[in-house]
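Objective 1.3, modelling of assemblies. Example input:
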Amino acid sequence: MTIKDSLLAVLMYALPMNSNRRMIVRMLKQVSRSPATAVARINYVNISNFLRFTKHVFHCPICGQQTTPIYDFPNLAVRREHKIGVLRETLQCRKCFASMRQRSLALKLLEHLYERTTVRHESIAALAAAGLGGIRLLDTDNFSAISNLLRKDPSYIRCSYLPDRNWGTEIEPNYYNINLEQIDFHDASFDIVLTSDVMEHVRDSDAAHAEIQRVLVSGGAYIFNVPYDERLEHDIQLVDTSTAEDVYLCEPQYHGDPLTGGVLAYRVFGRDLISKLSNLGFRVDFNRLEQEEFLVTDGDVFIAIKKD
Ligand SMILES: [Zn+2]
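Predicted structure (tokens):
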């Protein structure tokens, strides 16, 4: 670490959590470590977005608080390469740090629960306070703001993918080590399954989707986000998985992951995804969400209902 990096690190930790000043120092620290990313991060689009959104007061559908977002100057070249919208992974809630993608997922989950129970919760925090009422939910994210709020509910099960440990192990109460290609739960164990930018990292996503269909009850909902380009008929395969070894078809793409720092993406989904899920017995809806009060713009979320 250079003296400049050390000074930026000290400055960053001296600034208030989730403040714009801290975010900007963190971004400058990252750029200082990787100067080639400077143009992709400090540019007209990012500065305009920062100015446009930074004072936008919104209601967070996860923590339930009124707040303004953090715009973290994403690397636009990486966003383009990964086929992920500029705003999707940023505009974090200043209170619970949920990204716009996670808010899209939460809004669809709350809407689904309203249709199912006729009880409307204005946020995941309100849902957590009221309780899931026995609705069994499997969430593949152990680190998200949604997970932090719901994890005390006895019918909320969370899981991670930890290949160096035995599959099916209960790591903590209601927290399991699960390979989605072979889920260690009985048929019809869940009413809802949530995944958020997970399926592009699963080597055999078709097998995982068949498993999700199996562990859902009839009428159960699979609510998820993935990198998706609706203009594409077929998935873009980034890795050839037709043999036992991964064969990279382009420069390997790694997405941020709280467990490993970066996890290999196997594909960007195209419209094939909808027909494959339909063939498995799901009724599939892809939603583009525009909900200014929740600061969700061009949000993307799928809901797939298991048919009877
Ligand atoms: Zn929040």
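The chain has two domains: 1-33, 103-306.
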